[in-house]
Amino acid sequence: MPRPSVAELRPVVHPEGVKDRRSGEHWAGRMYMREISLHIDPYLVNTKITPNQLTYLMIVVGVLGGAALLIPGLTGAILAVVLFQIYLLLDCVDGEVARWRKQTSITGVYLDRIGHYLCEAALLVGFGIRGADVFHQDGATNWLWAFLGTVAALGAILIKAETDLVDVARQRSGLPAVKDEAAVPRSSGLAVARRAAAALKFHRLVGGIEASLFILVVAILDKVQGDLFFTRLGIAVLAGIAVVQTLLHLVSILASSRLK
Fold it and tell me: Which of 77, 152, 197, 207 has the fewest CB atoms within 10 Å, measured from its CB?
């Protein structure tokens, strides 16, 4: 079977609306990764590799990205960023291959969601263990930082779960899928607060791509200073953001029309 061209693939794997999904498409996907994945797809669509196998590979790569942070210094941070870029690439490619072959499935959607939960949690837990200094790069091990990294990971999971559980609640109540406009809080005060939070985008720091880049920045600062001060400060910041965003996101959902 001849290899399809990018021009042939584009309208099928990038149907109208894919890049414009407000809550379903990452900014990095819109900005560059969807174009990169489009040039990888031709080499995969005619192989025996299934979309679900690509999703499993995505999960393995993302978890390894978290484990890479156990490598001290810039090496571990750079490796984590690289692995999370590959994770994002695979996250694009699996769905695109599925659309081309018409093999989209509920199992694939489920694996994709589980993968996001596991990989982002692994990264934040790895960040916490990195700050705990298990290899004594900067003194004795301090497990407080591992605990705070785990708090950040739990928050990142809960934020995603809060969103996903809206669909679960609506389906079990016999309601259709929620529309984007239903996310706007009914209270004008909460709507303003939500717009402010969206403009600042601080909540994105606990996402996998953003967190990996943030971790690289603090690793560079640590390299300059010669200790783990900025890593530990970063862990505290991400834990704080995760806790606050978990609560604010819950309030936002309850105050919107998503459960109506």
Answer: 197
